[in-house]
């Protein structure tokens, strides 16, 4: 699958989500404000947009090992993480319940990860389906998230319909 190189603000506007969900608090777009855009999407277009929204939920970001979702994707692509002791460089890697996610030994000395441990480490609100060891760069997926655990507004029936064709 090809990497989406579309600008963040444009992608967020097309999906109907806030740029803050991608990690950009101050990013807005003034391009074509309600102008010549097509008003009604096809059924397939609606289903595809819901699937792409779900792709933005990354485990590494949710665990607090990256500042933004985009940074989480880049860090995974550069093989800075291991899952159950094996290096992973695929951002869409599917984790299972019981998987241990940690920063690779060779990457622990990086400045990005040094800021995450110690006294002045930022506090993250960890989802109920994950746990992270305090002041370490290691976390565990306790269970797979239930529908009520996902805080991004998603209409999952559209995704099911997309894949049931």
Description:
This protein has 165 residues and is an alpha+beta fold. Helices cover 27% and strands 10% of the residues. The protein has 6 helices and 5 strands. Strands 2-1-3-5-4 form a 5-stranded antiparallel beta sheet, covered by helices on one side. A hairpin with a 5-residue loop joins strand 4 and strand 5 (138-141). Helix 2 crosses helix 6 (156-163). The radius of gyration is 17 Å and the shape is globular. The two termini are 20 Å apart.
Low-confidence stretches: none
Distance between the termini: 20 Å
Strand order of the largest sheet: 2-1-3-5-4
- Helicity range: 25-40%
So what's the overall shape?
globular
Number of strands: 5
| Structural class by secondary-structure content | alpha+beta
Mean residue pLDDT: 81
Q: Please count the helical segments.
A: 6
Helix and strand pattern: HHHHEEEHEEH
Rounded to the nearest angstrom, the radius of gyration is 17 Å
The fraction of residues assigned to DSSP E strands is: 5-15%
* Biggest β-sheet strands, sense, barrel: 5 strands, antiparallel
């Amino acid at each position: 699958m090809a990497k989406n190189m579309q600008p963040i603000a444009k992608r967020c506007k097309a999906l109907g989500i806030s740029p803050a969900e991608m990690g950009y608090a101050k990013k807005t777009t003034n391009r074509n404000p309600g102008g010549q855009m097509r008003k009604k999407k096809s059924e397939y277009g609606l289903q595809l947009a819901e699937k792409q929204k779900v792709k933005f939920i990354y485990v590494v970001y949710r665990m607090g090992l990256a500042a933004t979702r985009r940074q989480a994707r880049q860090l995974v692509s550069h093989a800075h993480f291991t899952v159950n002791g094996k290096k992973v460089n695929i951002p869409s890697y599917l984790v299972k319940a019981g998987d241990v996610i940690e920063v690779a030994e060779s990457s622990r000395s990086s400045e990005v990860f040094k800021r995450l441990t110690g006294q002045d480490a930022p506090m993250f609100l960890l989802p109920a389906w994950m746990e992270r060891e305090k002041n370490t760069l290691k976390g565990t997926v306790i269970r797979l998230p239930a529908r009520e655990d996902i805080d991004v507004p998603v209409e999952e029936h559209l995704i099911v319909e997309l894949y049931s064709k």
